[in-house]
Write a structure and sequence with these properties.
182 residues; alpha+beta; Alpha-Beta Plaits; elongated
Length: 182
């Protein structure tokens, strides 16, 4: 008789503990997002996709083809083919294999140009049906940077480019679309 009463008290206590945990979590703010409609806002120093940058004023490529980022990459996901000699050297072809990239940031630290010619962006979605879709070539890497320039969240690269705040940036204005004639 006492044995069954002890078992009942034991299980009653377990039920009370479980229900208290349920009630505590019921009133907390949910941590999940409904993904396609709600998106996670990455923090300021987030390391997302890598992008190649251009000069804001002239629009010319900043990459000088020094191969420092390729040498610094611990997983060899960066491939660069250079052309030219000496001061006229440039990156003829530039590839990043995102299937191998571990987003460590060593390539951005190794870049000798000021401002950096390769930077991390806030983009983190890597859709693709085939493996080849995740190997980005030079023009696609510039497109990643263009999306980052139009990004409205916090921009740590503003410090790299000598910008004091988001309003002070000197990027070229988009051409105004003319209103359709009626």
């Amino acid at each position: 008789m006492e044995f069954t009463r002890g078992i009942q008290k034991f299980f009653l206590w377990d039920i009370v503990k479980g229900m208290s945990a349920t009630l505590r979590h019921m009133f907390k703010k949910p941590v999940t997002l409904q993904y396609p409609t709600e998106r996670w806002e990455p923090p300021e120093r987030f390391r997302g996709f890598l992008g190649l940058t251009r000069d804001f004023k002239t629009g010319e490529e900043l990459c000088i083809g020094c191969l420092n980022c390729e040498k610094a990459c611990p997983v060899d996901c960066i491939t660069i083919v250079t052309a030219g000699k000496g001061r006229e050297m440039y990156a003829k072809e530039f590839y990043i294999d995102y299937m191998r990239c571990m987003y460590c940031g060593l390539c951005t630290e190794a870049c000798p140009t000021t401002p950096k010619s390769i930077v991390h962006t806030h983009q983190y979605e890597t859709p693709g049906y085939f493996r080849e879709d995740l190997v980005y070539e030079k023009e696609r890497l510039y497109d990643v940077w263009e999306k980052e320039v139009n990004y409205t969240g916090p921009r740590p690269w503003g410090k790299l480019f000598g910008l004091r705040n988001q309003e002070a940036d000197t990027r070229p204005e988009a051409p105004a679309e003319s209103a359709p004639a009626e």
